[in-house]
Specification:
By secondary structure, the protein is α+β, with helices and mostly antiparallel strands. It is built from ten helices and six strands, in the order H-H-E-E-H-H-H-H-E-H-H-E-H-E-E-H. Among the domains are: 110 residues, no CATH class; 97 residues, Roll (Chitinase A, domain 3), CATH 3.10.50. Helix 5 packs across helix 10.
């Protein structure tokens, strides 16, 4: 087994390695009698490595793990955890765990892990279906009613080209096909379809005309900074709220940050922080620490 290939390739910091080692060491120190759903996956110099150890390592490494097949990733994590155990045992043999420097780092890492665990618990408790829908409903209720237009357009260089396009359309040419053939807009492959948009999402010259047209109506040539447009309005409606599932991740992030921020604010208010030997000029306020939310049960 190669010594710490994963750590070297990933360029992990000493602090990150220490926290990783502590997290895995805490699991390895548990009694041997484990649940049946936590099988042993390897043994390193007599120390059992279980599935939960791989899960802890994977969570710690996160996006630093290269893209690979599930089988290759499993082997990668076994190697990583195994190397950590080998190095940790070698460090213990040298009594490195008895030094004051290590004890200080150990205390800091323990504090950090406890903080992250509590913040994760707060996040998990906050992100419920009921809470998500409550935030969603409140946000939707605050959305102002705003008209939207769905339109197609054909963009050309000159006014004469635009007039020629209008003439073809009035003779019965298909707008979408003509857009594919003549429009210089990147969306021409979709037949010039711009989808639904509000007035402020387009340049003023374009919006002024598009929002005055009736459904199915065709415009005269319209000049903007991009060239000359011919516009056809396909539909008009009030702005629709985004579907719940499409914004669910944003809602979860909001609830996580809100719950964690409220906890930190509460603890700061209840706690007593005394600065000793502080600089004359106060430093900017430190942001509240955060931790990723624990995975929710499905």
């Amino acid at each position: 087994m190669t010594l710490l290939p994963s750590a070297a390739r990933l360029g992990l910091s000493r602090a990150s390695l220490l926290v990783s080692a502590l997290a895995i060491a805490a699991v390895l120190a548990m009694p041997l009698a484990r649940a049946q759903d936590d099988p042993m996956v390897a043994r390193v110099n007599g120390t059992d490595v279980r599935q939960s150890d791989l899960a802890a390592a994977e969570e710690d490494l996160g996006g630093n793990i290269p893209q690979m097949t599930p089988e290759a990733k499993r082997d990668y994590l076994i190697t990583f955890v195994g190397d950590m155990i080998l190095v940790a045992k070698a460090a213990e043999a040298k009594k490195m765990g008895d030094t004051d420097e290590f004890k200080k780092k150990l205390a800091y890492a323990r504090t950090k892990l406890l903080m992250e665990q509590l913040l994760q618990n707060e996040a998990k408790a906050a992100v419920t279906d009921a809470a998500l829908h409550k935030v969603y409903d409140e946000a939707i209720g605050q959305m102002k009613k705003e008209p939207e237009v769905r339109a197609r357009h054909i963009l050309v260089e000159t006014e004469d080209e635009a007039k020629a396009v209008v003439a073809e359309l009035k003779k019965g040419a298909d707008f979408a096909e003509l857009a594919k053939a003549k429009s210089k807009d990147p969306g021409s492959a979709d037949g010039g379809d711009l989808g639904y948009f509000t007035k402020d999402q387009m340049v003023p010259e374009f919006s002024e005309v598009a929002f005055k047209l009736d459904k199915g109506q065709l415009s005269d040539p319209v000049k903007s900074q991009f060239g000359w447009h011919v516009i056809k309005v396909e539909d008009k409606r009030e702005r629709q709220p985004p579907e719940f599932e499409k914004v669910k991740d944003q809602l979860e992030n909001f609830l996580v940050r809100k719950s964690q921020s409220e906890l930190i604010t509460k603890l700061r208010a209840e706690g007593k922080i005394e600065r000793v030997g502080a600089a004359a000029t106060p430093a900017p306020a430190a942001p509240a620490p955060t931790a990723p939310p624990a995975e929710q049960k499905k």
